Fold Outer membrane receptor protein involved in Fe transport.
Amino acid sequence: MRTGFKVLGLVGMLAAGPGTYAETPPTIHTTTATAKETKDLVKVIGKVVDAAKNTPASFATVALLRTDSTAVSGVMADENGVFSIPEVPPGNYILRITTVGYDTRFVSNVSIATEAGTTDLGVIGLTASAQELSEVVVRGEKTMIVNDIDKKIVNVGKDLLATSNNVSELLEKVPSVSLDENGNPMLRGKGNVVVLIDGKPSSLYGNDLPTVLQSFPAELIERIDVMTTPSAKYEGEGASGVIDIITRKSRIKGTNGNLRGTLGNNWNNNGSGYINHKEGKWGLRASGSAQQRKWFFRRTLQRENYLGETTTRLDQNGNGQDGNTSLFGRLGVNYDFDEQNSLGVVVNYSQDQNHNRNFYHNETRLPNGELIQQFDRLSNGNSRGNNVNANLDYRHLFSDKDHVFTFTANYSEGQSNGSSEFDQQSDWDELDLRQQSLRQNNRQALFLNADYTWPITPKATLEVGARSRLNSSTTNNAFYTYIPDTDTFVINPNASNEFGYSDASYNGYVTFTQKTGDWGIRGGLRVTDATQHINQISRQQSFKAHFLYLVPTLALSRKLDDETLVKLNYSRRVQRPQADRLNPFTDISDPRNIQSGNPNLTPEYTHKAELGYSSYKDKGGWGPSMFVDYSNNAITRIRTIDEEGIAYSRFDNVGREMAYGFETDFSRQISEKIKVNATGRIFRSEVVSEIANIDNQTWSYSGNLNAFMQLPFNVRASAYLNYDGPRAIAQGTRQGTFIANMGLRKDVLERRGTVSFNVQDIFLSRIYQSELRTDTYLQNSLWQRTNRFVGLTFQYKFGKISASGDNDA
């Protein structure tokens, strides 16, 4: 713990830059001009009118931008078209004015002088748009996909939001991203993805990632950054890469908000809302959501067992349902001490309740069809959990552009508990049994992070940072068996355990970026010192593992023109085993398929390289790339079988995995009414282990399509198609999966309201299948969600932004 604070202290001293605070007090502001005292700030005023009619353009949005187009401040004109932007530092700016029915107006070379006191821009005329309102909306939205030197940025616009209620549904529409049957994100069809929220680990919001993503409202998201070869600034873990989910931050003075409600079939309903208020130095934001979900599924499994004197065949056919109710709330306050320093505090709270019901019919037969075993198994489970975290962010801006120091502290804690009942019945009396299980979990986490960015020259930038993360959890699993003679449930010590886990990781990184002409290079190195403690409390066994590893990264780029870039990236990744995979607890909820953890797992090391090209013009472009991923000591699930046909599975370090191939994203405004974003990939996947006698290889292809079309009556249609092709896994092949969604939306109430209709999994094609083949058994399994989602959503934006900047919002 002390080591982490020493590292953070060092970064704090580095933040002083070449000098020290004692020698030269920093002068900081949010513009490119030299910072001044508050008394030197200038008020910018003006009036917006219809250029043809000379009538006021009431409630037009007026934004003040830096010369690099980043936002500084903004207000809404009053009903007379008059606007007033207070406290503007001297400098050169661009003024952007937007409102319904008019072309966006840019006023360049807005020069603000110190001695002016008030700068009057006079009357500014707007030209009425000759196109449909909906077409103006399409043109005004950000480009959906932006390729940066080491990441892919996906901006979340109205089209994505119209068919997405939560972050989980958003991620499905992001290029290169898909979800497995449990709702965990995958990159290029592979798991082990680090998911961040505003640069912080998603585990701070709860211990179950799918639940966190399903609880987070989609309208809070501004963009999603996808990094398959992340720089050293990001976590070294995540063999497949990093997904950073960036939430919206209001920079405009005044009050605004959003309310959203969805009614869906099969009790799939949700409601959410947020409100932002910024006045003077203070900013306040609050949001909340409530969701109710229910889905049904079916599952089949066929397994031929070649052990023993004769072959046997197990057939499992089952169905079930899962239900979830969740609440999410967020409250944040930020304060600008001056032009140099700002502080933000955010508290998040989430709560969820889950219910599941599963039924399985099991038959075991000989090759001649003779039935040798049969039973039905019914399970009912309930669980409840909550999580709270408090986050503090401090930001210090220096006099040079992009010269910044940030510090973050986050503490979270959560609890969950659950119970399940199992009732197994058979014509064979010895197979009749009843069981119960109880589970409790308590967890705490502390996260500290400091980053310092120093633009040494206009073309050279140094970044250094340090991070400490401390986690601890205790899980108690108790499994009981019913004894008919005494009419009591007796604990089964072989299937019960109390498991304690803690880990501490201390990280430091440095990156250096240099631009020379059209060339750019970014090199980085991250060092991680991590310790994991595993405590089998009930068995009085403990394990300790220490890791020290380096994560080098390199990115080279060359601009062929303003819109075209060629880049070469390399990153090393380290995947430490997760707590649930280390826990040796034996899960016997399905007596024919028993699972357990492995406390002897060691890290998986992955090398990732990409060569990419991107060219995006006004109406679209494309970004092809070639990639190769090589993992040594790969962590994967291994399944063995005994002579009675019972399967035992756990995670092991099996050998090496490799994937290489070609991927491209494509974006095109085909016409004024049709826009398409697509991603395609063809690749080869290999899993090889001499020790486990594994050698699986396959070629495959994947792709997704987001298409948007303008229909009559200002209705906007969207369609989403995704296909994840087959992939080699340790003992066989995971089959391909196809998903199709569609949606319609229409702006109403002068664009303050939006009505949308969407259907998910139109063809009920979300089917996950796998085949496992070894010398001792052959297994085919299937899992399918059997209900499509149909929902109707209404969203309303509200708020009148103050034109004066006073407290009369």
